[in-house]
Amino acid sequence: MAVWAIGDIQGCHASLMELLGKIEFNPTHDKLWIAGDLVNRGENSLETLYYLYSIRESIEVVLGNHDIALIAAYYGIKKSNPTIDPILASPDAKKLVDWLRCQKFLHVDYQLGYCMAHAGISPEFDLGMALRYAKRIEEKLQGNDADIWLKKMFKDGITRFDREASRIDIDRYIVSAFTRMRYCYGDHRLDFDQKGAPTDALREKGLKPWFECDNRKDIDLKIIFGHWSTLGFYHDENVLALDTGCLWGGHLTAARIDSDEVEIVQVECPATMEP
What we know:
Elements: E1 3-6, H1 13-22, E2 31-34, H2 45-54, E3 59-61, H3 65-74, H4 85-89, H5 93-101, E4 107-109, E5 114-116, H6 127-142, H7 146-153, H8 167-180, E6 183-184, E7 190-191, H9 200-204, E8 208-209, E9 222-225, E10 234-235, E11 239-241, E12 251-256, E13 263-268
Parallel strand pairs: 1-2, 2-3, 5-9, 9-11
Antiparallel strand pairs: 1-12, 4-5, 6-7, 6-8, 10-11, 12-13
Helix pairs in contact: 3-5, 6-8
C-alpha cells in the first residue's frame, strides 16, 4: 500500500491519469489524498469528477475554492462557465454535487503525521481549533439549508478572526481561510488580494506566506496544501505545498507521504491557460 498526495487538478483529466499511471496507483490497495480544486478551468472537469467518484473509497478529498464555486453554481448562486457546464448538465449532477458537499475542509492522519487543507490552516488556529471549525462548516455545507448558508459565504472574505463576530462572519472567515488564504500580516490579518509568489518587496510591506507568520499557532502535523500555483512546490519541516500550476502550463505533482523520505513525481500538463 502507498499513500500519495496530489495538488490541484482543476479538471485536467489527462494529466491526472498520466500521473496516476506514473506512480502506479492502484485504488484497490493504495490511497490518494487530493488537496482540493478538483474541477474548473480545465477541459475535462466532468470526466475528472466521474473518475474520482468511481474511486471514492480510495481517496481523501478536501474542498477548494473552485469546488465550492461549482456547488454554488449548482444552486444558482454563482454563474457557471463552459468548463463546469457539462457537470451541471449531466444526469448525475445531483449525485456528484452531493458527494462534493460531503467532503472535508480538513483531513488529518495522526499515524502518518500529516494533515491537509486546500489553502492551509489559519495562523490563528491550533489543530484542535482547526478541526472544530472545519467540522462546523462541513455540517453547514451538508445541511438542508446549504444553499442559503452558501450564498452568505460569497461576500467579501473576512480577513480577521474574531470570536465576538456574528456566526455568519465567523463562518466566512473559516471558509476563506481554508480555501483562499495565501498571505498574512504580522497581526495575522489575512490578505486575499496578493496572488503572486513571495517577494522581498511584499515582506517589506509586512506580508508573509501564512506558514511564515510570526507566532503562528503550533500544528504538530505537517500541513499539505495546494491553491498557490505561483508559490509552486515547497517543502519544509512544517508544510508541503503541491499546487505546481498544472492548468497554467506547469505540472501536476504527487508526493508519497507514507515513507521516511517524501518522494515527488510530476507530469507536465499540456494546458497553457493564461493567469
